[in-house]
């Protein structure tokens, strides 16, 4: 779907007035606010019930606009890395580097770095350009996923309406999100340290390493507690909390694809719960026979493609969370390529606190 130019113009006026707008991107739908006004950004945290220790990503229309959000004195090494990564924009890659002095503390959670990306969606780009036209200068859009904090991310306009419809001035309907997973987040590193992936996404560590011509570190395996005080030495990035992307219905992961052993959501769990309505979700085709103790079997990707699984992941979890099941049991996929990001989301979805 393509919203009319009138709808995009109205959305731009809403943002300039400090209101929130539901915005489609190629990854997930965003809860958009102008990122240069504290009162507008604060509405994001209030609507989502999002901790203010969880920073936001600023969305811009082009690389030149992105560069204006980074510090003026970027090192030659960091500038070179940004230049090498430019082919990924527009696209599902967020870069984190030293912030410009004009960036709001609300956006960065008080940190010294800022997260920036150029979305690859015609509606998002049209809105950013319309904002710049009306304001007479580029206006960055802060836009985390448009859902209550920790719940499953939205990939359709109806998902936004269900969760945050009362908090937005309008929702731009751009159809289902093409990628379906949040962007890869890459900390650009420093003159003496390599770049590091802070959140897995559709662009892998291996791809980024090849592009940069050097090592790229992977994500820290230890998740951050939402209630803990962030170590000031750790680069602030969205998507780091242990519990995230979570349905209300409990989620349990099987230990491996061909096993019935479960990865329990709570460390002190000693036995699977005795529940009568259990949904199993798999990757690939669904077998005709439903296993004993399972009420139904669904698939994230009947065609067996991880790209399909990524784009359908959140919509499937939301459908499973409609109240018809007591437990969602998930058979994992292979953890390579896009599977790394998919399993990251599912592990966070299965945590209970």
CATH fold field value of the largest domain = DHBP synthase
What does the average pLDDT come to?
91
> Helix proportion of residues, in percent?
25-40%
Structural class: alpha/beta
CATH architecture descriptor text of the largest domain:
Alpha-Beta Complex
Low-confidence stretches: 263-271
Major sheet attributes: 10 strands, mixed
Termini gap: 37 Å
Please outline the helices and strands.
Blueprint (H helix, E strand, L loop, with lengths): L4 H12 L4 E3 L6 E5 L3 H11 L8 E3 L3 H5 L8 H10 L7 E6 L6 H4 L4 E5 L4 H14 L5 E2 L14 H8 L5 E2 L12 E4 L7 E5 L5 H8 L3 E2 L33 E4 L7 E2 L14 E5 L13 E4 L6 H15 L6 E4 L7 H13 L3
Parallel strand pairs: 1-7, 3-5, 4-8, 9-10, 11-15, 13-14, 13-15
Antiparallel strand pairs: 1-2, 2-6, 3-6, 4-5, 8-9, 11-12
Defining key terms:
single chain; 353 residues; alpha/beta; DHBP synthase; Rossmann fold; 2 domains; ten-stranded mixed β-sheet; five-stranded mixed β-sheet; 10 helices; 15 strands; 28% helix; globular
Q: Would you summarize the structure shown here?
A:
This protein is of the alpha/beta class and 353 residues long. 28% of the residues lie in helices and 16% in strands. Helix 1 (5-16) crosses helix 6.
């Amino acid at each position: 779907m393509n919203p009319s130019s009138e709808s995009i113009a109205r959305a731009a006026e809403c943002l300039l007035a400090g209101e929130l707008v539901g915005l489609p991107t190629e990854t997930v739908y965003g809860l958009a606010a102008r990122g240069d006004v504290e009162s507008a950004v604060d509405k994001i945290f209030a609507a989502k019930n999002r901790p203010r220790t969880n920073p936001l990503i600023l969305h811009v229309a082009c690389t030149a606009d992105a560069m204006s959000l980074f510090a003026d004195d970027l090192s030659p090494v960091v500038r070179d890395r940004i230049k090498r990564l430019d082919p990924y924009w527009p696209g599902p890659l967020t870069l984190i580097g030293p912030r410009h002095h004009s960036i709001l503390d609300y956006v960065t959670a008080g940190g010294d770095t800022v997260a920036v990306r150029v979305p690859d969606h015609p509606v998002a780009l049209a809105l950013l350009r319309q904002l710049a036209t009306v304001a007479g200068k580029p206006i960055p859009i802060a836009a985390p996923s448009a859902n209550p904090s920790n719940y499953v991310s939205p990939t359709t306009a109806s998902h936004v309406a269900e969760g945050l419809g009362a908090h937005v001035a309008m929702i731009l309907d751009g159809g289902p999100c093409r990628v379906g997973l949040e962007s890869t987040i890459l900390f650009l590193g420093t003159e003496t340290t390599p770049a590091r992936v802070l959140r897995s996404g559709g662009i892998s560590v291996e791809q980024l390493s090849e592009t940069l011509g050097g090592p790229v570190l992977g994500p820290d395996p230890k998740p951050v507690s939402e209630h803990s005080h962030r170590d000031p030495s750790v680069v602030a990035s969205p998507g780091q909390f242990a519990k995230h992307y979570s349905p209300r219905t409990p989620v349990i992961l099987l230990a491996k694809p061909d096993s019935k052993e479960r990865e329990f959501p709570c460390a002190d769990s000693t036995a699977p719960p005795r529940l009568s309505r259990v949904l199993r979700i798999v990757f690939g085709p669904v077998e005709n026979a439903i296993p004993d103790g399972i009420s139904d079997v669904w698939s994230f990707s009947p065609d067996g493609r991880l790209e399909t699984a990524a784009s359908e992941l959140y919509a499937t979890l939301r459908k499973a969370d409609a109240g018809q099941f007591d437990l969602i049991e998930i058979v994992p996929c292979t953890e390579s390529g896009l599977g790394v990001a998919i399993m990251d989301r599912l592990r966070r979805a299965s945590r209970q606190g």
